[in-house]
Amino acid sequence: MCDTCGCGERQVDVEVKESLFSKNRALGEENRRLVEAKGAKLVNLISAPGSGKTTLLEATITHLMPKVSIGVIEGDIETERDAQRIRATGARAVQITTGGACHLDAVLVHKALHTLFEGDSHLDLIFIENVGNLVCPASFYLGEHLRCILVSVPEGSDKPSKYPTTFKDADVFAITKIDLLPYFDFSIDEAAREARRINPGIQIVEVSAKTQEGMADWIHALGMKI
Amino acid sequence: MCDTCGCGERQVDVEVKESLFSKNRALGEENRRLVEAKGAKLVNLISAPGSGKTTLLEATITHLMPKVSIGVIEGDIETERDAQRIRATGARAVQITTGGACHLDAVLVHKALHTLFEGDSHLDLIFIENVGNLVCPASFYLGEHLRCILVSVPEGSDKPSKYPTTFKDADVFAITKIDLLPYFDFSIDEAAREARRINPGIQIVEVSAKTQEGMADWIHALGMKI
User: Fold this and answer.
1) Which of B101, B154, B161 is nearest residue A8 as measured by Cβ atoms?
2) Residue B1 lies in a domain
3) Whole-structure pTM over 0.80, yes or no?
4) DSSP labels for A54-120?
5) Per-residue pLDDT tens for B174-188?
6) pLDDT value for A119
7) Mean of pLDDT over chain B
8) What is the pLDDT, as a whole number, of residue A96?
9) Has residue A173 been placed in a domain?
């Protein structure tokens, strides 16, 4: 049971909620200042479970390191698996296990940032891989410079329409696993059109970590060069 | 923004949360009594976005109707699309759009049940298709006789390990889109072993709504016969 999700608009006291979001935002701003003081950039990756966040991160790290020094904060409800996968690429990784919570918040990320920077490590780029959930993580600003939403081809092109609140505040919409397009009824046009209707400024990239197609576009969207 | 997800263990007052869950459970029991009084059975489907809940429902309805009379409560953050898809099969469907909330609760389902039963309609089997989210819906008992968790092959076989709290209280674990097994590194053994470690009594079925493989097992798990 996700025993932290004591939510529901009619249920949780509105003042408690507002105070919670405003505290989270203030600490998010502090995270951003901390990251900027260290000369780094913070990227928050949000998607449903199984959209390929970790696989895309592995490919991204392989492209950018050692020229770009990368750290990753991994958010999961349980297990250290994703951090282990990232460490195998040579990047620094800190695992947060939320023990039930459906999202990362600015407090958890703040602690993880201090761990990442231990020993005065230099990092250029820090990724946060949020808990696999297309809904709740979107409500929690973590201090990121860039918020990226991933939807994989097997999930279907109706996801922007069905989860508009998630797309509203995103900077980048990455359509992942595009090598699978021949096998699924996924319309890039529909997904892109709906995402732009909700958020006209959103940057859309199509990428496959498996075939490497679109990796240059993805890395460009992160503000980096291969 | 999912503005209802004002959660976080350290953040939301524990008493508020406990009162919320206990009220939800009481109304869930009321839903169950209502459904039983009408001679029907209630099934709650929980999965991440894009695991194929609606497609599996379409196939299930095609197999069982008109012998079994079926109603569906569709939960989505936005859009009426899923209810429209279900209505096209001839089943009754009521759409709940949560407008941001990451899960259905017993209040929303209670109202939807009354709509489904309008005109004293007879229904044998009622499905609830929860909001696409593998985390939060697991915390909200809706009165269901059967709770089914779906994970599709493209999502990966590590999902039970990563979302143990979701699997703990489930009756059925359906591995969906098994026609895609040749194209993905998905281990049925790993997924089944981990699900049984968390919940030894869980019933596991492997199914493809596309090829119909495993449909008889799935329908049997629902306590029905083809």
Assistant:
1) B101
2) no
3) yes
4) HHHHHHHHHHHTTTS-EEEEEEESS-SHHHHHHHTTT-EEEEEE-TT-SS--HHHHHHHHHHHTGGG
5) 999 999 999 999 999
6) 87
7) 92
8) 96
9) yes
| A49/B163 CB distance under 8 A | yes
Question: Measured between alpha carbons, how far is residue B50 from residues A85, A207, B1, B185 in Å?
Answer: 25, 18, 20, 18
Q: Give the DSSP H/E element, type plus range, for residue B175.
A: strand B172-176
Q: Which of A119, A77, A40 is nearest to B48 (CA)?
A: A77
Nearest CB neighbour to A154, from listed B16, B50, B102: B50
The count of domains in chain B is 1
Residue A101 to residue B138, Cβ atoms within 8 A: no
- How many Å lie between the alpha carbon of B62 and the closest alpha carbon of chain A? 21
Domain span holding position B130: 14-221
* pLDDT at residue B144 is higher than 70: yes
ipTM, two decimals: 0.85
Q: In CATH, what number is assigned to the domain containing residue A117?
A: 3.40.50.300
What's the confidence (pLDDT) of residue A98?
A: 94
Residue A203: inside a domain, yes or no? yes
Verify whether the Cβ–Cβ distance B4 to A7 is below 8 Å: yes
User: Residue B162 and residue A17: Cβ atoms within 8 Å?
Assistant: no
Residue of A nearest to B150 (CA): A49
Q: Cβ A8–B4 below 8 Å, yes or no?
A: yes
Q: Which residue is it, tokens 């939960």?
A: B75
